[in-house]
């Protein structure tokens, strides 16, 4: 089971992951994750840390912070908002993220 952390804010979760060596920034792009000039397909990375934050007053304020480790050794962070509003091209990546997030419970 992946560690799930409960910090007061998304910023605090990011700071803690940075202290654990997750220094790169991942971004979602056309059915892959991108970090600098590298692209990672769904099988090229593992999600090792998850932090899920729900806004107090607005469900649209939700965010998930993922600590991601690529098979090539890159450790970084991906922050997502509401995954339902994501580009359909990213479906396999979003599915992997959601399955990992839902397993935390």
Helix count from the secondary structure assignment: 2
Work out the radius of gyration: 13 Å
Uncertain regions spanning at least 5 consecutive residues = none
Total count of domains = 1
Largest sheet: 4 strands, mixed
| Share of β-strand residues | 25-35%
Mean pLDDT comes to: 79
Coarse morphology: globular
**N-end to C-end Cα span:** 9 Å
Count all strands and give the number. Answer: 7
Structural class: alpha+beta
The SSE order reads: HEEEEEEEH
Order the strands across the largest sheet as they lie in space. Answer: 1-7-6-5
Helix proportion: 10-25%
Structure description:
The protein contains 2 helices and 7 strands, in the order αβββββββα. The radius of gyration is 13 Å and the shape is globular. 22% of the residues lie in helices and 33% in strands. The strands form 2 sheets. A 4-stranded mixed sheet has the order 1-7-6-5, with helices on both faces. Strands 2-3-4 form a 3-stranded antiparallel sheet, with no helix packed on it. With 105 residues, it is of the alpha+beta class. The protein has one domain. β3 and β4 form a beta hairpin. The longest helix is centred in the C-terminal third of the chain and has 13 residues.
Please give a quick description of this structure.
The protein has 105 residues and is α+β, with helices and mostly antiparallel strands.
SSE topology:
Layout: H1 10-19, E1 24-25, E2 27-29, E3 32-35, E4 38-40, E5 45-53, E6 63-70, E7 75-80, H2 91-103
Parallel strand pairs: 1-7
Antiparallel strand pairs: 2-3, 3-4, 5-6, 6-7
Protein name: Phosphoribosylpyrophosphate synthetase
């Amino acid at each position: 089971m992946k560690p799930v952390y409960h910090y007061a804010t998304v910023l605090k979760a990011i700071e803690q992951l940075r202290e654990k060596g997750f220094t790169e920034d991942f971004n979602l792009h056309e059915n892959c994750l991108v970090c600098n000039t590298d692209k990672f397909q769904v099988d090229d990375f593992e999600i090792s840390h998850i932090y899920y934050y729900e806004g107090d007053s607005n469900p649209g304020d939700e965010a998930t912070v993922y600590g991601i480790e690529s098979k090539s050794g890159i450790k970084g962070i991906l922050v997502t908002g509401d995954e339902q509003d994501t580009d359909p091209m990213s479906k396999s990546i979003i599915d992997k993220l959601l399955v990992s997030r839902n397993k935390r419970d």
